[in-house]
Amino acid sequence: MAHHLVYIILDSCRYDTYVAAATPNLDRLGQVQRRYSYASWTSPSHYALLMGMIPHTSPRGVFASEVYKKEFSKWVGRLGVTELSFKNFLPQLSLPKVLQGLGYTTMARVSLPVLNPFTSINKYFHEYIQMPHHNDFATMVEQMDFDDDLCFYFLNLGETHYPYMLEGDALPHISGVHGVFKQMDEFLLTDEQSQPGEFFDPQEMERLRRQQVTCVEYIDNLVGKLFAKCPANTYFIVTADHGELFGEDGYFGHGPVMHEKCFEVPFLEGLRPELA
């Protein structure tokens, strides 16, 4: 039997944050793995994910092309279909295009503005919606529906992205982060830059790290509700688009950063577990 597919991206969630969280619902899917993102910020990483390229391991002594082949071959088991090979992904290299060809209704719910529907990332989706709030996984779960057709849901969750806010949380503030795009023109016209001493307060960095852990636990609770809505033949992939830095080696956030914690992400997958 072919499987529905739910692909959940915990935006900016680094691997050790995920491991530190209590995730009883997600644990039922399978053992979390440490993998690596193909990019260090949201937009390019999502393009890679939607090519069908999941976060990778880092094997030694092998040709990269062999790694790609093995990973693409795993879509057969994930989708529960046999009439699938790497050739199906060519020439578009598009997972939603492949799924459309297999009869899936393809739907996306995204939280981050860089993934908005005006970008080309929405190609081959029957329905592509940017949520009005960045931390609204609860509404995504409420709106999801599975009918007689095969469904593909691609979900970008903003709860684990800075500022790691849940409803009612006090907004954290890190100098130089808020309003960076709004103030970009002014920044380019001046030489003023935040000094490292102003930016990385260790206590605030630790508070933000703990807040990301809290957000993972909040998501896990909603995943339990999502399991209850999904048919038994629903396959889940849960990962992150990239990691995050909380002051390590003088870095905060992600993007133009070359640091292991910026690429290290959790990865787990499996069929919807049996309901209690």
Structure description:
With 276 residues, this protein is an alpha/beta fold. It has one domain (4-271): Alkaline Phosphatase, subunit A, CATH 3.40.720.10. Helix content is 30%, strand content 17%. It has ten helices and nine strands. Strands 2-9-6-1-5-3-4 form a seven-stranded mixed sheet. A two-stranded antiparallel ribbon has the order 7-8. β7 and β8 form a beta hairpin. α6 (137-143) packs parallel to α9 (202-229). The longest helix is centred in the last third of the chain and has 28 residues, at 202-229. Residues 173-194 have low confidence and may be disordered.
Radius of gyration: 19 Å
Sheet having the most strands: 7 strands, mixed
CATH class: Alpha Beta
Number of helices: 10
Q: What is the helix fraction of residues, given as a range?
A: 25-40%
Taken as a percent bin, the fraction of beta residues is: 15-25%
Instruction: Let me know the average pLDDT.
Output: 88
**CATH topology (level 3) name:** Alkaline Phosphatase, subunit A
- The class by helix and strand makeup works out as alpha/beta
The CATH homologous superfamily is named Alkaline Phosphatase, subunit A
The count of strands amounts to 9
Tell me the series of helices and strands, N- to C-terminal: EHEHHHHEEHEHHHEEEHE
Please report the distance between the alpha carbons of the first and last residues. Answer: 23 Å
Tell me the CATH architecture.
3-Layer(aba) Sandwich
Uncertain residue ranges: 173-194
Shape: globular
